[in-house]
């Protein structure tokens, strides 16, 4: 039994662990992170499969995202105090779980875990980290670039720690003056990441540019698409998608299908059209087999995604096959989980 404890990161302990002197080390049900692995190595405890319990992917998503969100809150607090990003803690406490979650091909299970509870500020960073990592994989990024993207995406909103809480949690629209202040989270985030040893300029640019838009309508500088980095364009898509599908203090989440439709409608101008298209196509592919409700009240099942129009799939109702790309009067109101 060699030392391969690292392979158990993200797995759940099935029993209490003690070292060979009988000292209690970790409780059962712990979801193992890099710190736990280091602790086990120090105590010369080597795990095998009997020590681990298999958990349903949906339960795993909830545990992992909750743990990451708590870790993110602590990281934010630390930055507030030190004005430095604790990059090693981010790499050991958060990134392995984001990678594990994005390996599982269950978009619906994941989405419910990403839904904000009362901790949107922290959970949103984790969600954008996961969604951007998925998107990076779909865009066939190489592992090194993907690793950089995951960290950049998870830190994209880090500048918000310097924005007054009453603005971040205001239950209504921001005044012009408040919005000007809110916009500063991009430049603050850029400076924080730029001044952190072990980060890359591209990661700092994501904090700066994730609200820039292809048509120049974004902020802080209103630059056009050719001046926005690919990393920033990917994070912008993930950021918009999670914000629109989450309950916020001032508005309810929009239905998933409605969000995809809106993203498709505005893609050619605001978000990068190619990245948007890949994202929507993959999400729709993951819905094959899901039941849907159509605008005329009928319930059918998605059986095929059409490459030329991924948002309007082929739907089967009893003996009928409805091609929504041709039946323009009909649309999907709701997608039901599998």
From TrEMBL:
Alphabetized Pfam families for the sequence: HD_5
Xref: InterPro entries: HD/PDEase_dom (IPR003607), HD_GYP_dom (IPR037522)
SUPFAM superfamilies in alphabetical order: HD-domain/PDEase-like
Superkingdom of origin organism: Bacteria
Domain HD-GYP: 99-295
Gene3D superfamilies in the cross-refs: Hypothetical protein af1432
Name of the protein in question: HD-GYP domain-containing protein
Organism: Paenibacillus wynnii
